[in-house]
Structure formats: structure tokens, C-alpha cells
Design a protein that fits this description.
CATH topology of the largest domain: Rossmann fold
Helix content: 10-25%
CATH class of the largest domain: Alpha Beta
Strand content: 25-35%
Shape: globular
Mean pLDDT: 89
CATH architecture of the largest domain: 3-Layer(aba) Sandwich
Length: 727
């Protein structure tokens, strides 16, 4: 959730007074706002004894290291020249003035964004080891999930027999068991006894999201068909904090929970995996809007530095793809606009251009209130922050526009627009915004609120459903996941059909966010099912919220150890993300040193493509929907063999004692066909012609040594394709 710069304007008089000011250009928006608050109050709002502290990224050179000690900071982590540090808010200004400090960055923490999933992603042959060197189930891989609302007692997090507990580490950043904890916030639990005794994350009575996503990534499916992807992986989880957890956090600690704290969570999981010598993939189903301020630049670099061979980060694309989020007023067009509304008291957007233009705001009262602000007025305002109060129908609205160079292209100026008023802004009395100026090419990106059309002025109907990817899915080092649709509804535990029809057959879930990123890169990277996905839900959430609306989508209630547990259907890219992360865990079992770049290459060669008329990758489907089996064949090197097709043969291939290969078909073969045997190195070792008219065939391979081989069948369309065998 992007924090609004509500205190910037009131600071301007003090900043012009000659008092020493912070180096604001080094700070991200939230850091700048806190420093300005402190500066305008002469550092008395937060007394030194009770001053809040903030978790932030800091980039500095070696000369800047002593600035931490001088300003009462605590270093929490370091990767290269980027630190994660705990900083007293009243020392932000002094820290920023040190010449060795290059940037201080923090932002609010993020917001929240299996039975058939494995079938749609062609995973079943991988689990069964069908004609593979072995079965791939995630064994020997650490599956990490950072989320909220974990029920760690759910039998889904044992093995399939509920005899072996699989959660190895659990850090609850909201835990109050902090006595003796070496962690920055909360506490971790490192033994089965401690984890199961803790029972649920501190927000477990109001959240259950993490129980669901973890089940998709790694649940065993205990006594159900709702098994997760990497169901024999080791599990390491972190319960972070999202915007809806704010009531659980002391006001003095609120700035300790930022996306720098989320980065500490990623590092915690990767560090655990390294300590046990296993590869690791982290799933993160949260996010927030991108920006042009550069508030994510150190965050992205930290993710880049934390990941690498055998260390993969997967994040959700977001669920804004079904809304208008962008429009462009081209040069030569006088004006373009739309109506804006919000369920809250603010609407916001960012517009950027290399040229001057104006922003016209209309409030549809009687009489109408019209305010036109030129970008020249904004740039000439103190610190390029323009503010005004509009009055319409006896109500006041505060308009703020701030200007700054785009972090992606300094020749462009970005303008953050905020209009604040009463609740349900734009819904009870309509509000439109237009971009005006024939000479300017201007792009607008939605912030808070919604873009719509209205019969009040049908000409103001601008808006496209693009550029909606969330951060950190937008990070170059992240594998960004969008959602597809198959199931159109579920029957709940009361026998009531709950329809939610977003399409079938693997079409893009209409709310799955769409690229490009704000700097023009193609995202998402890959797709997976995200609609009506069934997975575990928290028993503690059910107990505390028996009449909550989402409980109506519970498909099963069952008893285990005296508690009532749940399988629930949920939708969103939050569900797609752990499916891909779990699939990658299976691939890491086959090749523990896989990198993001290698995985993207596998996507490009093996993904299923819903619409073959499109060019891939694209900003709707990325490379397509992940195909776990084909991807595994590619990783094992089989698909690179000339003469071996990537299509899996539908014939039933088996091996009997003595190296006898068997081929069975459901119908008698209508024509002759050829069977070829290849080594995994690509050498053709054996060719045989099989006659028509039979349903069962055999081939003696006893002369071949024990190894993995590729079998290719050609000449008969009904059974053509390839598979693997292990002699």
C-alpha cells in the first residue's frame, strides 16, 4: 500500500527558513515524509526516548559505515553495498546528510493479492516417476512461503500419512514472544514441538491466506485429492505483516514493518536452505503498485542479490487486470480523460510527459467546480508541490500535485495527483480528470481508486487494462506469475453450488494483471491456474469467523485431532504463484543449481499457449502456462535430442524383467509404426518397425546397459510421441 505524502506541504515554510534540511533526493517517499515530519517539528514530535524506528534499505560506500554508529542504527543484513538497517526516525535526516550514504529506501509492506492444478500443469507423470529416472515430489528442496495467516497444525503440512511433520522453520514477525529473540521483529520457532505448540500466526484469527498458498505450494493433501505441488519438500515459512494487520502492531513499531522487513523474510528462508545444503524457492503472493519515484530500486537490487543458482524468487502479478489502469493522450490531441471514484476518501494517479500540459478536475455538483492546474504551476511551486482546496456543494476537497523526474527516464517528469475528500469519493458526486494540451504526449497510470466512464460526459471514456503488474513481481529477478481459469465453480460443504465463472480451458483469468512494467519490460513471465483453486484453510480462522463470506466457499469440513479443518476454494494470482513455485521446486530436485535465466528458457521452450495466434512472450500470458512434465524433460536434456519430439506418447510404455520394453495401445494399431531408442546424449541406439493390427508390442533392450533412455514412436498419429525409460 503506497503511503500518501500528507505532510509535505506543511513542511515547506520551515524548509525555506534556513534550517539545515535533510538530503531529500536520497530518500524514498515514505522515508522523506517521516524526515519532513521530524524536520517541521524540530525533532520534537518523536522524542528521542520514544522515537519510532524504521526498517529501511541503505546504500552506502565504505566511508558511510560509521554513520550507522553515529546515528544509533542497527545493521540487520548486508548484501554488497546494500544494507537493511533499523534506523531511529529522528536520525533519518542526519543519516541522509552523510556523504557516504547514497540512498535510504523503505515503503509500506504489501497487500494480499489444488486438486486440478496438478492435472492442468501436467504434473502427474512427474509425481509418479512415469518413465522418468525417478519420481519428483520436491524431496530435498526447501519450499519457502512468505505470507500471513498460517495454521501450522493443519494436517496438510505433514506427509500424506500425517506421521512426519514437514515445517522446519517458522518466523512470525508479529509474534509477541520476543524475549531472547535475536530477530528484528517477532520470533522464530525451530523445532516441531515449538512450531506445533505455537499453532497459528498471531494474525491467524483474522487471516488465512498463508494456509491456502502454502497448501498449494507444498501441501500433502492429507486424505483428499487436494495435494500441493511439491508435497514432499521441506517447508520454511515467514508470517510478515500486511496493511490489514495494522491493528496488531503497536504504533511505535509501525515503521518496522516495511518491504525491507519482507526482504529479511526472503533472506531468512534462503539462509535456512543454505544451512542444510538444499536448493530453495520462495513464493510471495503479495504486492503493491509500481511507481516512477524509484521507491523500489534497492528492493529490486536486494532480490537480485539474494537469488541465484538454486535460489529462486516467485511473486504474484496482481489482480488488477480487469480494471482500467492506464491511458495515453497522444500529441496532437487536445484533451483526454475519464471519471475517477474510490470506496475511500482519495483518488490518485501518476501522469508523465516530456512536455508541459494541464490537469483539469471537475466535481459534478451544482454548480460544477472546475479546477485546471498546469504543470508549469506545479514545477514553480516550492519543492514542486502544488496544493489547493476546492469547495463544491458545501464540501471541501484537497488537491495535491507533486512533480519529480522519472526514475526510468530523467527527461520525463512524473506528476503524482491526489484528490482527497469525503468517503466514497466520486461515487455520490462524480469526479472527472482530463489531461489537456495539444503539444504534449502524456501517459497516465492509476493509483488508488478506479477509472470509469459515465453517461454524464460520454466523451471522457479513456482507459486501458494494461500496465497493472504489482511489485515485487515487476522486479527483474522475480519470476512473475499470472492466473488462468478452468473450473467455473465449486460445490461447497453444505452442498450449495458456488459459481465463479472466469472462463475455461486455460484462458487468462480476467483479473490477472497485465504488463508491461513501468519501464517497458514484458511481464508476467508465466501462468498457472488461479480460479477456484482448492487448498487448506485455517481452522483457527474458521473458529473465529464462522459466518465470514469466504467460508461459504469451503468445500470440505473435516475433523482431525479434535479440531475442525477446512479445504476451501479461492481465486487470484495469489493461488497461481505458489503453484509455479512448487513446480520449480520439482525442477530444482532434478537440477539443484537452476537459475532464473535457465527457468525462463525452459518456459520459452515448453509452456502451453492458450492462444497460438499471439506472439510469446507477451504482456497477457508471458511465455504461457507452465507444463511441469515438459519442463522437466527439457531440464534433463531430452528435448534437445534431434528426432525426439516434445509430445508425450499416449501409448502405455512399460519394462519387464530382463530389459523387455512393452508398448500397449487402447485400439489395434491401424498402420505400421517405428520405435527408436536414444541415449540421453542423443545417440540413436536401436530402431524397430512394428506391424499393424495389434494392441501389445515388445522390444528386447537387454543388450543396453542400465541407464535412462528416450523412446520415440513415429508413423502412427494416435500414439506418436516420446517418453523416458530407465533400464
Amino acid at each position: 500500500m503506497r503511503y500518501l505524502l500528507i505532510c509535505l506541504v506543511c513542511a515547506l515554510g520551515v524548509l525555506r527558513s534556513g534550517a539545515q534540511r535533510p538530503v531529500f533526493e536520497k530518500m524514498s517517499s515514505l522515508v522523506r515524509e517521516l524526515a519532513l515530519r521530524d524536520h517541521v517539528s524540530q525533532k520534537k514530535v518523536f522524542g528521542k526516548k520514544s522515537s519510532p524506528r524504521i526498517c529501511a534499505f541503505v546504500r552506502m560506500d565504505s566511508e558511510g559505515e560509521r554513520a550507522f554508529g553515529e546515528n544509533g542504527c542497527r545493521v540487520l543484513a548486508q548484501v554488497g553495498d546494500i544494507y537493511i538497517a533499523d534506523i531511529p526516525v529522528h536520525r533519518l535526516s542526519a543519516l541522509s546528510r552523510h556523504t557516504g550514504v547514497k540512498r535510504i529506501e523503505a515503503n509500506r509492506s504489501h497487500s494480499l493479492v489444488m486438486d486440478s492444478t496438478a492435472i492442468h500443469l501436467n504434473t502427474q507423470p512427474v509425481y509418479e516417476g512415469t518413465n522418468l529416472p525417478q519420481a519428483y515430489t520436491g524431496e530435498g528442496v526447501v519450499m519457502g512461503v512468505v505470507d500471513v495467516g498460517f495454521d501450522v497444525t493443519h494436517p496438510n503440512f505433514f506427509d500424506s500419512t500425517a506421521s512426519r511433520y514437514r515445517i522446519k522453520r517458522f518466523w512470525d514477525q508479529l509474534s509477541t514472544d520476543t524475549v531472547g529473540s535475536a530477530l528484528y521483529v517477532g520470533a522464530d520457532y525451530t523445532t516441531e514441538e515449538a512450531i506445533r505448540g505455537y499453532a497459528h500466526s498471531r494474525d491467524g484469527l483474522i487471516q488465512t491466506h498463508g494456509t491456502h498458498t502454502l497448501g498449494i505450494a507444498a501441501g500433502s493433501g492429507y486424505d483428499s485429492p487436494y495435494r500441493g505441488m511439491a508435497y514432499e519438500s521441506d517447508i520454511c515459512i515467514v508470517n510478515n505483516a500486511v496493511s490489514s494487520d495494522i491493528a496488531l502492531i503497536d504504533s511505535a513499531d509501525i515503521y518496522k514493518y516495511t518491504y525491507a522487513t519482507d526482504a529479511l523474510a526472503y533472506k531468512y528462508i534462503f539462509d535456512y536452505a543454505a544451512s542444510v545444503g538444499k536448493p530453495c524457492v520462495v513464493s510471495f503472493s503479495e504486492g503493491s503498485s509500481q511507481d516512477f519515484r524509484g521507491d523500489d530500486q534497492l528492493f529490486y537490487e536486494m532480490i537480485e542479490n539474494l537469488t541465484g543458482p538454486g535460489r529462486i524468487f516467485v511473486a504474484a502479478a496482481g489482480n488488477d487486470g480487469g480494471r482500467k489502469t492506464y491511458f495515453r493522450k497522444p500529441q496532437g490531441t487536445e484533451s483526454m480523460g475519464a471519471f475517477f471514484y474510490s470506496g475511500g476518501n482519495v483518488v490518485s494517479f501518476t501522469a508523465k510527459s516530456q512536455s508541459s500540459f494541464a490537469i483539469r478536475t471537475t466535481i459534478y455538483e451544482t454548480p460544477r467546480e472546475v479546477k485546471t492546474v498546469s504543470t508549469a504551476e506545479v514545477l514553480s511551486s516550492p519543492d514542486s508541490i502544488y496544493t489547493d482546496t476546492l469547495v463544491a456543494g458545501g464540501r471541501q476537497y484537497v488537491l495535491t500535485v507533486t512533480a519529480y523526474p522519472s526514475c526510468y527516464n530523467p527527461s520525463e517528469t512524473a506528476y503524482d495527483f491526489y484528490l482527497r475528500g469525503d468517503a466514497r469519493l466520486g461515487m455520490e458526486r462524480e469526479i472527472s480528470v482530463e489531461l489537456v494540451g495539444t503539444d504534449a504526449d502524456v501517459e497516465l497510470f492509476k493509483g488508488s481508486g478506479y477509472i470509469s466512464a459515465s453517461a454524464t460526459n460520454p466523451s471522457l471514456d479513456a482507459g486501458e487494462m494494461v500496465c497493472s503488474i504489482h511489485s515485487p513481481g515487476s522486479a527483474p529477478a522475480a519470476i512473475c506469475v499470472g492466473g488462468t481459469a478452468y473450473r467455473t465453480g465449486v460445490v461447497n460443504y453444505q452442498g450449495v453450488y458456488r459459481p465463479y465463472n472466469m472462463g475455461t480451458g486455460g484462458i487468462r483469468y480476467r483479473h490477472s494483471s497485465v504488463g508491461p512494467t513501468y519501464d517497458g519490460r514484458t511481464k508476467p513471465d508465466v501462468m498457472a491456474p488461479g480460479v477456484n483453486v482448492i487448498s487448506s484453510y485455517s481452522s483457527y480462522y474458521l473458529e473465529a469467523n464462522p459466518t465470514a463470506s469466504d467460508i461459504a466457499s469451503d468445500v470440505v469440513h473435516f475433523d482431525y485431532n479434535g479440531r475442525t479443518y477446512v479445504w476451501n476454494a479461492n481465486s487470484g494470482t495469489s493461488m497461481s504463484t505458489p503453484a509455479v513455485a512448487g513446480a520449480i521446486a520439482l525442477w530444482l530436485q532434478a537440477k539443484p543449481t537452476l537459475t532464473r535465466e535457465e527457468i525462463i528458457g525452459v518456459f520459452s521452450r515448453t509452456c502451453k499457449r492458450y492462444d497460438p495466434a499471439l506472439t510469446y512472450p507477451n504482456n497477457y500470458y508471458g511465455h504461457g502456462e507452465i507444463d511441469v512434465y515438459r519442463g522437466l524433460l527439457d531440464i534433463l536434456g531430452i528435448t534437445a535430442i534431434e528426432g525426439v519430439s516434445q509430445q508425450h506418447t499416449p501409448a502405455r510404455i512399460g519394462l519387464r524383467a530382463g530389459g523387455l520394453l512393452t508398448i500397449e495401445t487402447t485400439e489395434p494399431a491401424a498402420r505400421l509404426f517405428t520405435v527408436r531408442i536414444y541415449s540421453v546424449g542423443g545417440m540413436l541406439l536401436h530402431t524397430a518397425r512394428m506391424s499393424a493390427g495389434n494392441t501389445s508390442y515388445s522390444l528386447d533392450l537387454s543388450r543396453l546397459p542400465s541407464a535412462v533412455y528416450a523412446v520415440q514412436i513415429d508413423g502412427h498419429p494416435a500414439i506418436a510421441g516420446s517418453t523416458l525409460i530407465r533400464l
